[in-house]
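User: Show me a protein chain along with its predicted structure.
Assistant: Here is one chain, sequence first, then structure tokens.
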Amino acid sequence: MTGDAQLTLYASEFSGGAVFSSTGSTAADAIRQGEAAQGGRIFIGHTELLCLDGSRTLADVENLLLHHGLPPACKLLYTQVEDCFTKADTGAVLESVRMAERGGLLAVTDSSTVLEEWLGSRQTALLPALSDTGLKMVLLRTDGECTVLSPEAAQGMYWLRRHGNTDFSMTVRMGQNMEDVQILRSTLRKTLSDGKLCYKVGVITDNCPETVKPALRMLISRQCRTAVSEMRSARADVIGMETLAAYGGIAFTDAVEIGVEVY
């Protein structure tokens, strides 16, 4: 979806079906206009990837999700919509997003999570973006301001937002040597302690050598601290800090403690 005063809806099938577009004042209006032009109903209940080019169109996701059957698990992607359809294989783009999430390079996101964040108190959503150099993570505010996260911060968001079964390899630098560590599972626990917001990340590995664990802890801790720093600089909160701070009666800007345990 793209637009400002008017919204344009583009649609195509991953199998290579023809692209069609329709324009309206809202997403719902664009769908109605498209149905009239196509002579049939536009069904979006099986949509797997929704591309957006601005915060104005992100607001329309609520209508699509609640009233037009957009699946909650649908992936959202911030990009130049026309380029995504005309210059890229959308099926390949979707698979790249999923692989990056499975590989710990991008935080896991979907339409329901993005919408919840964008309608929250900080009005900022975390979502993947497609650029000329590949996939990135961005913080998109309702006022249209977009902050691109560094690769290190994007990986930090992965640890600070999700937990559960994983299966990917991380490369850890040990002096002049590099060591690959297989990550099997991660956990996340949020607590309050001595006026601090505490995020405790647990990482279960496939027999990580004891000599490598300190370096892995430092790497993940640095990624998480970078994510928090860049998020705060963007005046955003996509890891539940504000809710945790309010519960403990402390300020959103108070100190954050990152703890990492490797097993």
